[in-house]
Design brief:
Blueprint (H helix, E strand, L loop, with lengths): L8 H12 L10 H24 L8 H19 L4 H23 L4 H21 L1 H4 L5 E2 L5 E2 L2 E2 L3 H25 L1 H9 L1 H6 L4 H27 L1 E2 L6 H14 L4 H18 L6 H15 L3 H14 L8 H9 L1
Antiparallel strand pairs: 1-4, 2-3
């Protein structure tokens, strides 16, 4: 198969939208805007990790445990070893989950379909047990409270503007890594997604690309975990439950699983809807679920997929109807 990096227009737009968030701290001081954008960007990173796996037709619930590994890793080294440099913490949050993915990959990636989904869900539950049963390392049910502010070139990133800028930077890195991976290996991932057995029979080394996607997905999840711990100033087991995995999958499917742009739009839309419907008290969960059902039923390709289909139909100009005289001329020929 031919290799070559191809960045789609959607990936470029997703990159620009995420990067544009860096302007927000300079134009507003609204704390609600900061909070919503932080949540949306973290949701985008988590949804991107799901998107990478879906490019190989693998639905994963493993995003929260990898987020926990990345988030707890930076919390432990920062609180116990006084390491605050944002570049070091970013590298730790990315590479620690990738090491876990390298160890788990040979076991987990043997499975397909429902079995793969079930095993990744179990991984999420096992991570919860590990966090609760290792209080000396993770703080147990209390978590690790008091995460110190990271620094960049000696400057503390402790205010709300800096927190948002750091989350934006981590999200930009996640988008670039995902765009490069899915762009460079697009043909391999597409072959696995369409027919894994046929691709393997044609000589494609399936496990190689599955492992690569699994590692990249884990690393991006770790970046999201770092951003979440930095926003909350603590690492707590309740931030990484399997329920949150359902939200990240919903972000990807509602926005459109085929592109990074769809993933970003889905995450931003549903995070905003969650904050908006949160004011409806006991009805918020039901309204949130109803919104997801409506979007999935009306736009089966996700928001971006349905929009692309609509634009394509509008571009196709209708053919003029054949008149009886033209039909007679065609018959005489």
């Amino acid at each position: 198969m031919m290799r070559g990096i191809r960045f789609s227009a959607g990936n470029g737009v997703a990159f620009l939208l995420v990067a544009a968030t860096a302007i927000v701290p300079f134009v507003t001081q609204n704390l609600f805007v900061y909070s919503t954008l932080n949540q949306a960007l973290i949701g985008i990173m988590a949804a991107i990790s799901v998107h990478v796996m879906l490019r190989m037709d693998l639905l994963t619930f493993a995003t929260p445990p990898f987020m926990a590994i990345g988030g707890y890793a930076v919390a432990i080294v920062s609180m116990r070893f006084d390491i605050a440099d944002v570049f070091v913490l970013g590298a730790i949050s990315f590479f620690t989950p990738t090491l876990a993915a390298i160890l788990l990959g040979p076991l987990v990636l043997r499975l397909r379909g429902t079995y793969f989904v079930l095993v990744t869900f179990v991984l999420s539950e096992i991570m919860q047990l590990v966090l609760f049963l290792t209080p000396r390392l993770t703080g147990g049910s209390n978590g690790l409270v008091g995460f110190p502010a990271p620094t960049v070139f000696g400057i503390s990133l402790s205010d709300n503007q800096s927190v948002l800028l750091l989350t934006t930077g981590l999200t930009v890195v996640a988008v670039v890594i995902a765009a490069f991976t899915t762009g460079y290996f697009r043909q391999h991932f597409s072959a696995i997604e369409e027919n894994e057995t046929l691709a393997e029979s044609l000589g494609l080394v399936i496990w190689h690309y599955k492992t690569l996607g699994f590692i990249v997905s884990a690393g991006i999840s770790g970046l999201a975990g770092f951003a979440l711990v930095n926003m909350l100033l603590m690492a707590h087991p309740s931030s990484f439950t399997s329920v949150t995995a359902v939200n990240y999958i919903a972000y990807t499917i509602v926005g459109g699983r085929a592109s990074l742009l769809g993933t970003a739009i889905g995450a931003a839309l549903l995070v905003f809807a969650t904050n908006l419907l949160g004011g409806q008290g006991e009805y918020s969960e039901g309204l949130y679920g109803l919104l997801i059902i409506l979007v999935v039923l009306i736009a089966k390709g996700g928001i971006t997929g349905s929009a692309a289909t609509l634009v394509q139909r509008l571009r196709v100009s209708p053919q003029p109807a054949a008149t009886p005289s033209k039909l007679a001329q065609e018959a005489q020929r």
